[in-house]
């Protein structure tokens, strides 16, 4: 006998009448009438745009934290870092709105950040030749968190593309560059402060 023709008791049970079926699950979160109960207009959105905007907002806040940790009486190098971070905060908020709204990151922004990257990289050339541990006096750890947060922004852009949301290719380029820029800032500042790098030798690769 063909096994597919055998009766399956589990499938022979009569289906529940419409009145006996479980009601459709309701969304537990609705836009409140009281604006004080809403932290962001799109916070209950089920797409990744809101997650991306929160991630870029968090990154901008982290950059502000780094700025607060820089010396009150800065050296020339520290003052340059502060000025660059001041400009970057605005660019990160431009990055924030560039998926839902109009594009706010342009090739001249890429060129400026690459120029600043090259400046700090050249100033600290040869100091890092392999993996190093993300440690040191503040704001070095905070800058490493900015670096990681930039990577998270890139990953959210990947998720957005995967979900069918289109955006300008300059956005992931800029976010990747941001991550590299924050790293080179850690190297530059540790050189300024004569803080040694601590090497890490991977046992995995």
TrEMBL record:
<keyword id="KW-0808">Transferase</keyword>
<feature type="region of interest" description="Disordered">
    <location>
        <begin position="1"/>
        <end position="30"/>
    </location>
</feature>
<keyword id="KW-0547">Nucleotide-binding</keyword>
<dbReference type="InterPro" id="IPR016030">
    <property type="entry name" value="CblAdoTrfase-like"/>
</dbReference>
<protein>
    <submittedName>
        <fullName>Cobalmin adenosyltransferase</fullName>
    </submittedName>
</protein>
<dbReference type="Pfam" id="PF01923">
    <property type="entry name" value="Cob_adeno_trans"/>
</dbReference>
<dbReference type="InterPro" id="IPR036451">
    <property type="entry name" value="CblAdoTrfase-like_sf"/>
</dbReference>
<keyword id="KW-0067">ATP-binding</keyword>
<dbReference type="GO" id="GO:0016740">
    <property type="term" value="F:transferase activity"/>
</dbReference>
<dbReference type="GO" id="GO:0005524">
    <property type="term" value="F:ATP binding"/>
</dbReference>
<feature type="domain" description="Cobalamin adenosyltransferase-like">
    <location>
        <begin position="56"/>
        <end position="187"/>
    </location>
</feature>
